[in-house]
Every structure is written in structure tokens, then in C-alpha cells.
Design a protein that fits this description.
Blueprint (H helix, E strand, L loop, with lengths): L6 E4 L9 H7 L2 E4 L10 H4 L14 H14 L8 E6 L3 H8 L8 E5 L12 E4 L10 E6 L3 H12 L5 E7 L3 H11 L3 E3 L2 H5 L6 E4 L6 H10 L3 E4 L7 H12 L8 E3 L7 H10 L7 E7 L17 H17 L3 E8 L13 E7 L4 E7 L9 E7 L2 E6 L3 E4 L7 E2 L7 H14 L6 H19 L1
Parallel strand pairs: 1-2, 3-4, 6-7, 6-9, 7-8, 9-10, 10-11, 12-15
Antiparallel strand pairs: 5-8, 12-16, 13-14, 14-15, 16-17, 17-18, 18-19
Helix pairs in contact: 8-9, 10-11, 11-13
Length: about 450
């Protein structure tokens, strides 16, 4: 069927019964077509909206679909002649049985769904979940972003605090995930629209655990709706979002909801012990912190527009810990990134950042993705007043010369439960566990260091 030096394009998942002699004799080219067209499986195209230039790719996945819709609109493509029958959804089995009849004509069966009336707030609610926990004085929490981090880190902690909270709602981008996680949490309902919980008078507080680029905007919307917020770090990825949050609290003298960013390490038993030991120090501290963070692929969302990079998304934990331990304001920052030898490693997750504080203390973070996974992840040493304190992976805190550990645990304890306890106590008492100023300072520190890494 092919001319000499012709092109054979494989469309779909079909068998490849190829004969080399056929291909060789005519010097044919074999190409495999990507489903839907160029752009498919390219996260920068599909998730971030980075389009291909027309001069290089005429028909992308999106343009193919747009053209198909145009052809439908003008009647150049007609699907009506293909429709064999229409069935209400309760007759699903019959609809498929009709399609299996050979020689019966057209090949489409259509399902007819009952009329849908949207809710007043235009939210998409995926269903009520059974075994809901009734409100009896406990804080009623809505979870925004039901991904692996929530399920693996937060959910086990919250299950152990059932005497203090009830999870009223779970909001996730996809309905099936929202409902599945809501069932795990014994939540009262699941939804795909943030507005649903913002307008719910029976929601007291929100946990925002979405991808990072949504944190600032969602936090501001929740605060404006009168909800207390615990937002996973980072608080925001831009100065504009931070300024908007600051303006919200400064705009009038009314009592505003509590805001807490998920800088949990400061609440760990290790940080609490260190804070007590260092409270009476007579001089500044030299703090060195090493984070063997592990490699994350360059095309992972954490490195892209949704994540903002590992300095903003992870290293901010340590900047906040430095603030908590020194109790002083940062006065100067410096940062230098590694120059990687190949594309496998990145400079912006292999860097050293140094912060000078107003009390004379200096904190240095060495953040790396170069190390072995079997090596300990985090280590901190503090030199002060003739003493050296060493924290190993949040399982052991020692002081040089002391025979026994000051604090130890069987597994890493980074203060996640203590953070939640501080959040609930803050809501009930009105006393903020971490001041707004310190949360904003941490976020702006991270942004300042980010700009230095990029220069």
C-alpha cells in the first residue's frame, strides 16, 4: 500500500506484525502516534499550560480538540447517524447488550441522566459520607487537599486527637479521592469546591494541604470567610500574596481568625528542650544545620510553578526554626548554589544559606539532594556559651560532656502532634502560638534566599 520512502503511522494500541523485508525494500519510515497529539504526557504542556510554538508544532493535543469541536459546530462531523438508541441510566446493562448485537446498524448508545440542579454556590459535592462525627464542642475541621502528605502525616495524628476535633468535610480536586478520604476520616461530606466549606457555618477551621501555589490565595479566602487556618508550608510563593495577607490583618481593628503555618519542627520536643536551655544564654549562637533531603526528579511538580522549589517548600522549615531558637530578627542573608555537572541534579536544591540575626547569632543551612538515602536526613549543631548541642534526625538530642541524651525517641518526632495541639489551643484561647510577623518573616526570608540562588 505504501509508495517508496513512504511513512507508516501507528495509531492506537495494536499489534506490530512487521516484516523487515517490506520495510527495507521500500525504505519505509515507521512512526508511533501519541494519543491525542503532541503535548500528551508532557506535564509542562498539560499541567502548566506551556504551549508549543505554531512554527514547530501545528497540531497539538489542545488544537486537535478545538478543531474537532469546530467541525461538530459547523456540522462537518455528524454523530447523530451513529446513535442506535438512548437509555436511562438504570438500563445500563440493556444499553451494552444492544451494542453487542451484530449487524444491527449504528454503533452508539447514549445514556440519559436525570436533570441536575446546581447548588447556590455552584459547588460540586460528591456525596454524603456515613459515620459522621457529631459536633459536641470539638473544633470542626475541613481538609483542603487530600493528597499523600495529608493521609500519611496528618491523618494518623488527627485520629489520635478525636476528643478535640471532628473532620466535617474533605475537599479534593477529584471527587472520587475526596469521597474516599472523607470515608477514611469519618467526615460528614466530600466536595470538589473550596467555596462549599467557606460558606458552611459548621466549619470552624481549615487545613490547607494543596500544592504550594494555591496556599496564599486559598488562605486569604478562608480568612476572609472567618475560618481559622492551618496552612502547610510555605505560606505563599510570592511577595504579593504575603502582602495581601498582612494587609488583611492590618485593615481594621476587628478580631480576625487565627493563622498558623505548618512550621512544625519548632514544636518538637527537641526544639522545645533547646529553647529552654538557650533562654538564659549570655552570647550569640552559631547554628549549623544539614539537610540530606534526597533527590527529586527535575520534572517533579515541587520544582515547577506549583511547588516553587525546595528552598521555598522545605528549607523554610529550618529558617523558622532558626527564628524560634534565636528569638531575634534576621539582619542579613547570603546564599550560594551548587553548579551541577549534569541535568540530573539542580543547583536550587543543593545550596548553602547563611542568616545573621540581630542578637549576633548566625545560622547556616546546608541543603543537598546529592547524598545517599541511607544517611541520616537532618542534623543540627549549636555552639553557644562553651556548650555544643547536637540534634540527630529528631531521635536524639545530646550535649557534649553529658552522659545521657537530653531527649530521645524511637522514631523521628518533628512536632506534628504538638503543632496541632498548639493550633487548637490557640483557637480556644485567642493566643497565637506563632505570631503573624514571624510567619511572614520566615516566608520573606525564603523568598530573599530564593532570589540569591537564582542570581
Amino acid at each position: 500500500m505504501c509508495r517508496r520512502k513512504g511513512r507508516v503511522v501507528l495509531v492506537g494500541d495494536v499489534g506490530l506484525d512487521l516484516d523487515r523485508a517490506d520495510m527495507y525494500a521500500k525504505e519505509l519510515d515507521l512512526r508511533v502516534s501519541c494519543s491525542y497529539g503532541p503535548g500528551r504526557y508532557d506535564s509542562r504542556f498539560e499541567d502548566e499550560g506551556v504551549d508549543y510554538p505554531y512554527a514547530y508544532v501545528r497540531w497539538t493535543e489542545t488544537r486537535n480538540m478545538a478543531e474537532y469541536l469546530r467541525l461538530l459546530e459547523i456540522g462537518a462531523v455528524r454523530v447523530e447517524p451513529l446513535i442506535r438508541a438512548r437509555f436511562p441510566t438504570e438500563r445500563v446493562a440493556e444499553a451494552y447488550a444492544v451494542l453487542e448485537e451484530k449487524g444491527a446498524g449504528p454503533s452508539l448508545s447514549l445514556f440519559e441522566y436525570p436533570a441536575f440542579t446546581p447548588s447556590p454556590v455552584h459547588s460540586v459535592v460528591t456525596g454524603t459520607v456515613g459515620n459522621a462525627i457529631p459536633h459536641d464542642g470539638r473544633i470542626r475541621l475541613a481538609v483542603i487537599g487530600a493528597g499523600n502528605f495529608f493521609k500519611g502525616a496528618h491523618l494518623p495524628v488527627l485520629r489520635g486527637m478525636a476528643d478535640q476535633l471532628s473532620i466535617r468535610a474533605v475537599v479534593s480536586r477529584t471527587g472520587h479521592n475526596a469521597k474516599a478520604v472523607a470515608n477514611q476520616c469519618n467526615a460528614e461530606y466530600a466536595a470538589t469546591d473550596l467555596e462549599k466549606v467557606l460558606q458552611d457555618p459548621d466549619v470552624d477551621a481549615l487545613l490547607i494541604a494543596t500544592r504550594h501555589h494555591l496556599h496564599g490565595e486559598m488562605t486569604l479566602r478562608a480568612l476572609a470567610a472567618g475560618k481559622h487556618v492551618l496552612v502547610e508550608k510555605p505560606l505563599a510563593l510570592t511577595h504579593e500574596d504575603l502582602d495581601a495577607i498582612e494587609h488583611f490583618y492590618a485593615s481594621d481593628n476587628q478580631v480576625k481568625p487565627l493563622l498558623m503555618t505548618g512550621f512544625n519542627r519548632r514544636f518538637s520536643p527537641y526544639a522545645e528542650k533547646l529553647a529552654g536551655l538557650l533562654a538564659a544564654r549570655s552570647g550569640p549562637m552559631l547554628i549549623t544545620y544539614r539537610m540530606n533531603a534526597g533527590h527529586i526528579a527535575a520534572d517533579h511538580w515541587v520544582h515547577g510553578l506549583e511547588g516553587g522549589g525546595r528552598n521555598l517548600g522545605e528549607a523554610c522549615h529550618i529558617y523558622n526554626l532558626f527564628l524560634a531558637l534565636t528569638g531575634a530578627a534576621p539582619t542579613r542573608t547570603e546564599a550560594v548554589a551548587l553548579a551541577p555537572a549534569n541535568a540530573y541534579f539542580r543547583g536550587d536544591d543543593n545550596f548553602v544559606a547563611t542568616i545573621r540575626f540581630s542578637d549576633g547569632s548566625v545560622g547556616t543551612l546546608a541543603f543537598t539532594a546529592l547524598g545517599a538515602a541511607r544517611h541520616s536526613k537532618e542534623q543540627m549543631e549549636i555552639f553557644c556559651d562553651g556548650e555544643v548541642y547536637r540534634l540527630d534526625d529528631y531521635v536524639c538530642l545530646t550535649r557534649t560532656g553529658s552522659g545521657r541524651p537530653l531527649v530521645e525517641s524511637k522514631s523521628p518526632d518533628k512536632g506534628l502532634r504538638e503543632q496541632w495541639q498548639a493550633f487548637f489551643t490557640g483557637i480556644r484561647t485567642g493566643v497565637w502560638p506563632v505570631s503573624l510577623g514571624e510567619q511572614l518573616t520566615t516566608s520573606r526570608l525564603a523568598l530573599d534566599i530564593q532570589s540569591r540562588l537564582a542570581s
